[in-house]
Amino acid sequence: MAHDCIPGPATRATIYLQPRRQSSLSTQLRTKTVALQRYLHLIKWADTSLCPACGQQDETVYHFILECPAYEEPRRRLGQAVGRAKMTMDHLLAKKNTFPKLSKFIHETKRFEDAFGDVRDAGRADGQNRENMAAVKT
């Protein structure tokens, strides 16, 4: 019996074949446990859930990626790179060919620079491609 919380083969391939920083960040974005104000406020690490960039709404993953006016220019470039029709959370977070473009957006916003450093696609530096591919196939 399949469980909804267990990622399918395509999602596992997306996660396992990314550099570690990207894999960690993409998992946290998907599970909404990334260090954005909404989550930090939920776990009592922040006094407010308001977005520090715009101060207008709670800083959720959706707000950060698709709504925050402070990131309008990087978001415009992301939309050009992936196509306007693919500017959805499902597409941006689940497609392996899209996450490097989302990583570039994230890098341009500098929102996670302290926690993740440069998350743009730079290839695997940790040499685990073969091990991770074997894990995907099992």
TrEMBL record:
**Protein name per Swiss-Prot or TrEMBL:** Uncharacterized protein
| Protein species of origin | Auriscalpium vulgare
